[in-house]
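Annotated sample (chain length 147).
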Amino acid sequence: MEIEGLIKEWESIFDREGDFYIYGAALSAKKTLKGAYKTGVGDRIKGFVVTDIEENVTELEGLPVYDIHHFKDKDINVLVYHKGYIKEDICQLLEELGFFNIYLISKYAQHIWLENPRPVSDEYMERANQRKKELFEKRTELEKQPD
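Output written by the structure step:
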């Protein structure tokens, strides 16, 4: 999917009414909040939710951290950045607790704000290839022999 399409999809998530909460209170939660601000939707994030408040901080990046079990309104929107089997466990738990507005956002993080590679110019590639050629030429004849 093109980056522009992902950006539109990401923004459309925030077009709906209501507040958003980020699942977790650690590094991935911080990255998610930073990404939300970077893409102009940070003001929609109202806090973080965790499954065990005893094991977590009560505030992160200036926003409150809530225990998910204490939410009476199950209609909140939860952003889940985690990947792999962990995200499946988190989603299953949230669904068992009655939450269904769950958004898996790792693809947005990966392509929009965390790992979006900068385009490489032709000039850069030419310099890199020239340097590679120079290094190859400096090698001895023995080093140039294929294994």
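Annotation: The longest helix spans residues 122-138.
Annotation: The two ends are 40 Å apart (CA to CA).
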